[in-house]
Design brief:
Elements lengths: L2 H8 L3 H10 L6 E2 L5 E2 L2 H15 L4 H12 L5 H45 L1
Antiparallel strand pairs: 1-2
Helix pairs in contact: 4-5
Length: 122
Amino acid sequence: MNIQRFSRLLNVSAHTIRYYEKIGVLRHVARNASGHRFFTSKDLDWMAFVQRLKDMGMPLDKIKHYADLREQGDVTAELRKQLLQEHVALIEAKIALETEHLEKIKDKILYYDQLIHQAVKA
């Protein structure tokens, strides 16, 4: 598929795709006879994973590091696993903190519900 279709499927600009290729996050992109990029379903799967990491807040330099390790093959499986585990731990800590904030806000809403209910009774 060409870069326009690829970018549409991923909901990412062609500029971003070219940038990811330039910095080495996206590698080994095939070219057609005219020299235009030609993307495969494997490229699509990889970029969907990259997007998931970005959406989860993984910095681009860490994603690049993961891509570098991936390029080296199965010998780096443990390092890639560790990188993902570290990121999962960060996400879990953020979720725990956000959950705590959410509970405090819900407590405040309950307080206001009680305050308003008392004012209506008076």
